[in-house]
Amino acid sequence: MAEQTTSAATRAGSARDGQGGRHGDGRPEKSDSAVVRDALGVGVAVGLSGFAFGVTSAGSGLSVLQTCALSLLVFTGASQFALVGAIAAGGNPLTAAAGAFFLGVRNSFYGLRLSQLLALPRVVRPFAAHWVIDETTAVSLAQPTRRSARIGFTVTGLTLYVLWNLTTLLGALGAEAIGDTDAWGLDAAGPAVFLALLAPMLRTSTERAVAGIAVILGLGLLPVLPAGVPVLVAALAAPAVLYAEGRRAARRTTGKNPQENQRKADGRQGEGR
Questions:
Q1: Which of 30, 103, 136, 166 is the most exposed place for a label (fewest CB within 10 A)?
Q2: Which residue has the higher pLDDT, 239 or 17?
Q3: For 209-241, what is each residue's pLDDT tens digit?
Q4: What angle do CA 242, 244, 249 make, to 5 degrees?
């Protein structure tokens, strides 16, 4: 009730300021139905990809129960695909789990931001943490108010969790029914879905550089390192690119006005004399 009152007051204040239906940061306010519609769209679109994971996992040798347990308990698609992919390639289970773990670490950083944005009751946070993934974070951060962020997070998380686990079960059962998934070419389903989820996120040149170098490292080291290890090495692409970007930015700052830099240097020398 207090949030509704606050929201109404905010809208009234915006109207008095001549901003109409806009939030304080300039973003237009959204109705609850619009937030729910957007969240459902993301949840349904990504949730259906669980079928590919179920097929890939069962084809990698995991049982239906193990496959479903991964989706129920881990619930972060990239880590799940990395784990079963490394196992399918004959990698050590510990190495496969390490690669999946490092991919999942990013969710911890999402949680730091969402904890401030959503400000959920303390008793709810442990349950909400299980739904802190790429999609729920993206939908929540796109909202102009805390109320709409909470709605977006809840609807996206619930829809995606239910659909992902349901389609995982169907995919695992289907793969078990058809037998050898390699004969159907379904072993490519996992990587294809992963790339489809990743590609739209590469919006800046830095992100594309990290992805490109990671691919080169992963594929280049695949023939010479045990399965699962190239994924861990590919993670070095991120700090390498960020270091290079930092050096480039420093050079641009230093060389932005060389005449001014020279005058400052001459002034310091004069003071020394």
A1: 166
A2: 239
A3: 988 998 898 888 878 877 667 777 888 888 899
A4: 95
Q: Using CA atoms, how far apart are residues 132 and 80, in angstroms rounded to an integer?
A: 15
Closest by Cα among 54, 82, 76 to 67: 54
Which residues is 28 bridged to in the sheet?
22
CA distance 257 to 246: 18
- Whether residue 163 contacts residue 50, with contact meaning beta carbons closer than 8 Å, is answered with yes
Amino acid residing at 226: P
Strand, helix or coil for residue 28 = strand
Interhelix angle 146-178/134-141, nearest 10 degrees: 160
Query: Residue 155's closest CA among 144, 145, 147?
Result: 147
Q: Which residue has the higher pLDDT, 160 or 24?
A: 160
What is the four-CA torsion angle of 262, 264, 268, 273, rounded to 10 degrees? 60
Give the integer Cα–Cα distance in Å for 236 and 167.
33
For residues 163 and 67, give the distance between their C-alpha atoms in angstroms, rounded to a whole number.
Answer: 15
- Residue 172, Cβ density class (10 Å: 0-12 exposed, 13-18 middle, ≥19 buried): buried
* 214: Cα separation from own chain's centroid: 16
CA-CA distances (angstroms) from residue 39 to 97, 135, 142, 247? 30, 9, 11, 39
Q: Cβ contacts of residue 228 below 8 Å, gap of 6+?
A: 86, 89, 91, 92, 95, 96, 98, 99
Residue 133 CA: distances (Å) to CA of 161, 220, 243, 256: 11, 29, 26, 40
Alpha carbon distance 124, 185 (integer Å) = 42
Helix/strand/coil (H, E, C) string of 94-156?
HHHHHHHHHHHCHHHHHHHHHHHHHCCCCCCHHHHHCCCCHHHHHHHHCCCCHHHHHHHHHHH
- Give which of 263, 88, 60 is closest to 176, Cα–Cα: 60
Q: What confidence score (pLDDT) does residue 152 get?
A: 94
pTM: 0.63
